[in-house]
């Protein structure tokens, strides 16, 4: 059973992924989570900025857990794409990545201290996902420099495909990028590719 505080963090992440960060008010989070009125500043004395930061942390952990549980890079890749394919269908193409949402919206020049805190959390989430992908590629036999580069390509292609799919209201971008990345990963982690690769 989740606590009211946990429900608020999860609700914030869910609302941000569909609406974006700016349109998601604390009142919306309270209504969505069913948390008692007046509880927001009890649980989040740092206000909306703290709630946004913790929502980003929650989203970051959610994806990190999925990546960590995969036994191969291709399995991790398929889990990411298949999960977002379902989310996009179920939400009528509204559900994007909450970490991307706060990143692109956190540039308010009038509130640099708020923007900096949220961007820092988003950067940490992206870095964690990148590191997990790179570790998975290394475990699959890729040398560290190549694994680091390929992990960044996978991460940025995945996030870009979600944005294009939402804008076009079509899953074709996800399908195409997933298949291309699967082929690329397999070509780099096959036994023949590992023999050719410099160490």
UniProtKB/TrEMBL annotation:
SUPFAM superfamilies: Homeodomain-like, Tetracyclin repressor-like, C-terminal domain. It holds the Pfam family TetR_C_13_2. InterPro entries: Homeodomain-like_sf (IPR009057), Tet_transcr_reg_TetR-rel_C_sf (IPR036271), YxaF_TetR_C (IPR054156). Keywords: Transcription, Transcription regulation. Residues 74-180 form the Transcriptional regulator LmrA/YxaF-like C-terminal domain. The keyword NAD does not apply. The keyword Ligase does not apply. This is Transcriptional regulator, TetR family. It comes from Mycolicibacterium vanbaalenii (strain DSM 7251 / JCM 13017 / BCRC 16820 / KCTC 9966 / NRRL B-24157 / PYR-1). The lineage of its organism: Bacteria, Bacillati, Actinomycetota, Actinomycetes, Mycobacteriales.
């Amino acid at each position: 059973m989740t606590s009211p505080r946990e429900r608020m963090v999860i609700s914030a992440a869910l609302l941000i992924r569909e609406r974006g960060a700016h349109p998601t008010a604390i009142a919306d989070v309270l209504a969505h989570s069913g948390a008692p009125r007046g509880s927001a500043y009890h649980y989040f004395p740092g206000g909306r900025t703290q709630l946004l930061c913790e929502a980003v942390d929650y989203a970051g952990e959610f994806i990190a857990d999925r990546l960590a549980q995969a036994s191969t890079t291709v399995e991790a890749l398929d889990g990411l794409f298949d999960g977002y394919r379902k989310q996009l269908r179920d939400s009528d193409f509204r559900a994007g990545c909450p970490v991307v949402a706060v990143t692109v919206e956190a540039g308010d020049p009038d509130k640099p201290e708020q923007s900096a805190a949220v961007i820092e959390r988003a950067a940490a989430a992206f870095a964690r996902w990148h590191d997990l992908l790179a570790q998975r590629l290394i475990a699959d036999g890729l040398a560290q420099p190549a694994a680091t580069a390929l992990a960044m390509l996978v991460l940025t292609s995945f996030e870009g495909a979600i944005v294009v799919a939402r804008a076009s209201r079509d899953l074709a971008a996800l399908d195409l990028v997933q298949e291309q990345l699967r082929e690329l990963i397999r070509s780099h982690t096959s036994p023949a590719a590992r023999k050719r690769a410099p160490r």
